[in-house]
Design a protein that fits this description.
This protein is α+β, with helices and mostly antiparallel strands. It has a single domain, classed as Sandwich (Jelly Rolls). It contains two helices and 13 strands; from the N terminus they run H-H-E-E-E-E-E-E-E-E-E-E-E-E-E. The strands form four sheets. A five-stranded antiparallel beta sheet has the order 1-2-13-4-11. A three-stranded antiparallel beta sheet has the order 3-8-7, with no helix packed on it. A three-stranded antiparallel beta sheet has the order 10-5-12, with no helix packed on it.
Length: 153
């Protein structure tokens, strides 16, 4: 159990360092401040989902979700880090019957085309802004992942 916990801490630390470096390069100065979030707080947030870091231009979320609708964000670049469960994620393609659900967000019931990825624990995927993405199937009923959202103009 100690080895698993140590590996999880090292993986989380490496992921956060990578995200910070990517954020600085992609978003011109993101993050705006130093944020330390201990593993107990991260585990608490992951148990129900929600924000871990909220900074101008950078949001780190702990997500728990089921299959859902297609999403596309005008200014949000994603880095998803899978930590539990498995899912079929479709990225790209054309949204079918898309509708605007927020000023910078579109949703749709399905996609035509796109690339399908079978996501499992430990996988990482990047999704640029304006790219449709869809958790089409979640055979484990729920999937848990960190979503690092870097805002662009």
């Amino acid at each position: 159990m100690t080895i698993r916990f140590t590996r999880a801490k090292l993986f989380t630390a490496a992921m956060l360092l990578t995200v910070v470096a990517a954020g600085i390069l992609l978003a011109g100065g993101v993050p705006a401040a130093v944020h330390y979030i201990g593993h107990d707080k991260v585990a608490e947030v992951m148990s129900k989902g929600g924000p871990i870091v909220s900074d101008p231009g950078l949001v780190v979320l702990a997500q728990r979700r089921q299959a859902g609708e297609v999403e596309s964000h005008d200014h949000t670049n994603h880095v998803f880090v899978m930590v539990e469960g498995e899912a079929t994620l479709v990225v790209g393609g054309t949204m079918v019957n898309a509708r605007r659900t927020a000023p910078a967000q579109m949703r749709a019931p399905s996609l035509e085309g796109g690339t399908t990825y079978h996501m499992t624990k430990g996988d990482v995927i990047t999704i640029p802004a304006k790219t449709p993405h869809w958790f089409k199937e979640v055979p484990t009923k729920t999937v848990a992942y960190y979503a690092v959202n870097i805002e662009s103009e």
